[in-house]
Specification:
It is built from seven helices and five strands. The chain is α+β, with helices and mostly antiparallel strands.
Length: about 210
């Protein structure tokens, strides 16, 4: 497996369909559908490089402000949380070891119960473009940008009482999306930061012979 900077890889695959290292063909026509987000590697890099995560958040804020878009909630929340943590240490408001361990445990529990609400959020409109399936009663949803197309398939299948999420295709701009694509990836590469909400269509899966 190869880990490459996402923005660099996306730019490369706009004009190529091969691996930038070994030159093996990824896919003849849709190579972008066959790359995934390496969250583990990203976490490792953030921990190894001091200040990198904060710098990335700052760049994201500047980017969204430049486009005149609302800054996603995770950036505000994480920045605020970091600032409060640093201020507490500067003011000498550190606790005893046992209290610290207790707070850490409580914070961990809060994080586990967060259900990705502090992630960057994406507004989505899910439309049905097939007479064989019914539309959703509530087609407008808001969820984590790290959610994948597979998550959406499972959500739609549950709402429509389908026997399997594999019976569905989800499209953006009439292009079928890969199941491992994150919504952030779809917004950047397919929706290209057009005005929210992200419009996606679903239909019965079409088997290509």
């Amino acid at each position: 497996l190869l880990s490459v900077c996402r923005s660099c890889l996306v730019k490369y695959l706009e004009e190529n369909n091969t691996c930038p290292t070994c030159r093996i063909v990824i896919h003849q026509s849709h190579p972008l559908q066959y790359i995934g987000h390496d969250r583990t590697m990203q976490d490792i890099v953030y921990k190894l490089v001091p200040g990198l995560q904060e710098a990335e958040m700052k760049k994201q804020r500047e980017f969204y402000h430049k486009l005149g878009m609302e800054v996603p909630g995770d950036i505000k929340g994480e920045t605020c949380s970091t600032k409060q943590h640093l201020d507490a240490h500067r003011n000498g408001e550190t606790k005893a070891d046992e209290n610290s361990n207790k707070e850490t445990s409580e914070e961990k529990q809060e994080e586990d119960n967060d259900y990705h609400r502090s992630d960057e959020q994406v507004s989505i409109c899910l439309e049905c473009n097939s007479s064989k399936l019914r539309g959703l009663k509530r087609k407008w949803i808001r969820c984590s940008a790290q959610a994948t197309v597979l998550h959406l398939k499972k959500f739609i299948a549950k709402k429509l009482n389908l026997s399997s999420f594999n019976e569905l295709d989800i499209l953006c701009n009439e292009e079928i999306l890969g199941k491992d694509h994150t919504l952030k990836f779809v917004v950047v590469t397919r929706w290209r930061f057009k005005k929210a909400p992200l419009l996606l269509h679903y239909r019965p899966k079409m088997d290509l012979l």
